[in-house]
Amino acid sequence: MFKVNENYAKLPGSYLFATINRKVKEYQAAHPEERIIRLGIGDVTQPLAPVIVDAMKKAADEMGRAETFQGYPDYEGYAFLREAIVAGDYLARGVQIGIDEIFVNDGAKCDSADLGDIFSLKNKIAVCDPVYPVYVDSNALVGRSGDWLKDKGCWSNLVYMPCTAENGFAPEFPEETPDVIYLCFPNNPTGATVTKDRLQEWVDYARKVGALIIFDAAYEAYISEENVPHSIYECEGAKECAIEMRSFSKNAGFTGVRLGFTVVPRDLKLDGVSLNQIWLKHQEIKFNGVSYVVQKAGAAVYTPEGRAQTQAQVNYYMNNAKVIRQGLSDAGYTVSGGVNAPYIWLKTPEGMTSWDFFDKLLETAHVVGTPGSGFGPHGEGYLRLTAFGSYENTVEAIERIKNM
Ligand code: MLT
Question: Could you identify which of 5, 248, 313, 348 might form a hypothetical disulfide with 352, taking C-beta atoms 3.0 to 4.6 angstroms apart as the criterion?
Fold first, then answer.
């Protein structure tokens, strides 16, 4: 008889951002007169850069002519995009990556979830706490996270690495040795970073215990300080123990276009098996590639005009981050992040829970944030604001919060 995947029933709720979306929609339906400002999900608001739009139009024209029409794309991505990625993101930083180590995808979220397909269900998973919920939920769907412990607000089989004000929101090595470690720097949700030396220690640790690091570098374009690594492959030995995920969503405004890539080095071998070849197989079986038009748009990001136009957008959002940080700390809030990342991590006032403060912000200031507890038990008592709004909305949101 047909049975459903029982792991779905174990999930304590819906995906965090879907829950918030529903709540905000309900509130707006009940209060149509209020102008809600959304600084919740990390979704960009600036239009695509002109050079990217031009590339998409040109690619669409090519698709409309028999001599330049393209059918199914390569599973790994077109060589023109992978070459641009290798040159622009890696060789330019002195990191040697081959184009056969790059796998183009339709945004980092899918691969964050799907990478779990290639390692055993027996693996012990370590995650930062708080953490981007996709890592946790996707492991829960296949049973790797164990059972949801309602009283503790966490999963029984995961190794949680607390990220707190005391450790600068950067995790310590876990007491229990994991097999797979998810790291995201600059961090979502706290906006924290680690130095290159600290990341090197993580690489050394992973190699010592035989663990795989899944490194999410979706926010690397927001790094403003020296000595913060843009790629885990800046660390020695990382190609033997780490997979890296990148996204075009945040650096080039592709949240609605969908493009990202994953780096699986050839040197990454477990029990003599090449993860690069396993991931290629995975993509061939499960994925039919990203459209020509979108990959052409991605390649435009690496042109000199693309670099300049997308950097201007990153600067625009980082100015918002400054407005949020400054405004809230002037008003007496404890804030962090927002220096190398577009997220500001805010301590809730007067010991309020994250969801209570979320409700208060929505009902009193009509501003949407993301409750810290939605990212894990150690997110309780915090709220995340994003810098991806328009400048005008950001300024108004902070004024409203100050006057709350
Ligand atoms: C976030 O707000 O954390 C992310 O933008 C959501 C996502 O990328 O799925």
Answer: 348
